[in-house]
Design goal:
- The chain contains 19 helices and 14 strands.
- About 45% of the residues lie in helices and about 15% in strands.
- It folds into two domains: about 190 residues, 3-Deoxy-D-manno-octulosonic-acid transferase, N-terminal domain (Rossmann fold, 3-Layer(aba) Sandwich), CATH 3.40.50.11720; about 190 residues, Glycogen Phosphorylase B (Rossmann fold).
- Helix 3 packs parallel to helix 4, helix 3 crosses helix 19 and helix 5 crosses helix 6.
- The chain has about 425 residues and is an alpha/beta fold.
- Strands 3-2-1-4-5-6-7 form a seven-stranded parallel β-sheet, with helices on both faces.
- The model has no long low-confidence stretch (mean pLDDT about 95).
Length: about 425
């Protein structure tokens, strides 16, 4: 009855969501391989090897999945792996980082009965693995009808979802009955899954796989990045990652301007979360009178230096944090939920962020408790904190040690997730 009501709702609201889908396709973000959104995926039926289907929404979940996928390839070499994402940036991240570990890459279908049935007929997964909170009623019901396994890895329930979910409790209850096991990120997430209808015996706290991914993405050294970006030798560097709104860049620009009054040689490297915002960010920074360079324009000829750099390339931020003396992570200076704090911490860098961290609540709390993360609300607070650290190299060394210990202490979630995959493939 719940599924019938859900599909009737999709039918009656079709004029609305079809307009949204058409805009995505015609507007460009879904134009590439749009047929896959309706179940027409370029995956042949399996021949003699069983399959796993792993799904992540976007970049963040794909990064979290990387260590798990690599371990699964090692421990289950006889299985084919099909990897899906919802967003093009997630797809790009997956194809660039997991090409050697995945057999097929596809876009996730709309949760329409005919679309998910077609994909499941093509993929025929022995197990469907969903990262974080990707629960879709038609997909889960059809996979259960096929008697395939369903696991949620790195499971979490955001504050917003926890507030809204009671109104949709019958749907969550139906979906969670189709899930065989949930590897939750934290005790709080586990409790929220249980409150929504998951059986306590099928939920366990396995930790956050992003702790494992963080140390696997260190990449180039600070000296290499300083040369690549033409940053002056010895100049302090602030790296800002994943800003998502003009008010965030305005606040950071205000803080940077204050920093320059005390340390005029300080460099700023800023990476907007979405590359389509590079032009907007560039105009904002140039309006301050600063000469900006895009990463794609660097390095400069010998003897020339850049002081304000905008990252306009894909997939380099995780490694680029190595050149920073201090880092700032966006997404939390506006009420957007925050962004990934794991990557700068893996490099041993102090990290500043805003108060709106509900999507990264646990790591933000851990970072603050360990003395390696600093929550600020205003440009003045941000500038004061940055200057304090730039003037105190011994404190930065201490933070580097504490950040490294924090990351290492919480590693191992990927292995625990893979053990659960093996257990359920073997019939428990």
């Amino acid at each position: 009855m719940t599924r019938l009501a859900y599909n009737l709702f999709l039918l009656f609201t079709a004029p609305l969501w079809l307009v949204y889908v058409a805009a995505r396709i015609l507007g460009g973000s879904w134009r590439d391989r749009w047929q896959e959104r309706f179940g027409f995926v370029p995956v042949p039926p399996p021949k003699d090897r069983p399959r796993l289907w792993i799904h992540c929404v976007s970049v963040g979940e794909t990064l979290a999945a990387q260590p798990v996928v690599k371990l699964l390839r090692q421990t289950l070499p006889d299985y084919e792996i099909v990897f899906s994402t919802t967003t093009p940036t997630g797809q790009q991240t997956a194809q660039s980082s997991l090409r050697d570990f995945v057999d097929y890459f596809i876009y996730f279908p709309l949760d329409l009965p005919f679309a998910v049935r077609r994909v499941l007929r093509r993929v025929q997964p022995r197990m469907l693995i969903l990262f974080e909170t990707e629960l879709w009623l038609n997909l889960l019901t059809e996979q259960r009808r096929r008697r395939g396994r369903v696991l949620v890895l790195n499971g979490r329930i955001s504050d917003r979802t926890a507030e809204r979910a009671p109104k949709s409790r019958p749907i969550y209850h139906h979906m969670l009955r189709c899930v065989d096991f949930i590897c939750a990120q934290s005790p709080n997430d586990a409790a929220r899954f249980i409150a929504l209808g998951a059986s306590p015996s099928r939920v366990d706290v396995c930790g956050n796989t992003k702790f494992d991914q963080a140390l696997g993405a260190l990449g180039r050294s600070a000296d290499e990045w300083r040369r690549e970006l033409s940053l002056p030798e010895g100049a302090p560097v602030i790296v800002v990652g994943s800003t998502r709104a003009p008010e965030e860049e305005q606040l950071i620009a205000d803080a940077y301007q204050q920093v320059l009054h005390s340390l005029p040689e300080t460099c700023l490297v800023l990476a907007p979360r979405h590359l389509e915002r590079v032009d907007e960010v560039e105009r904002l920074l140039q309006a301050r009178g600063w000469r900006t360079y895009r990463r794609s324009q660097l390095p400069l000829p010998s003897g020339q230096h850049a002081q304000v750099v905008i990252l306009d390339t894909f997939g380099e931020l995780a490694s680029l944090y190595s050149v920073a003396d201090v880092t700032i992570v966006g997404g939390a200076f506006a009420p957007l939920g925050g962004q990934n704090l794991f990557q700068p911490l893996a490099h041993g860098k102090p990290v500043f962020f805003g108060p709106h961290t509900h999507n990264f609540r646990d790591i933000a709390q851990l970072a603050k408790a360990a003395g390696v993360g600093f929550e600020v609300q205003t440009a003045a607070e941000l500038a004061e904190g940055v200057l304090r650290l730039l003037h105190d190299p011994k404190l930065r060394e201490q933070i580097a040690q504490q950040a490294s210990e924090l990351i290492k202490k919480h590693q191992g979630a990927s292995q625990r997730c893979v053990e659960q995959v093996q257990r359920w493939l073997q019939g428990r």
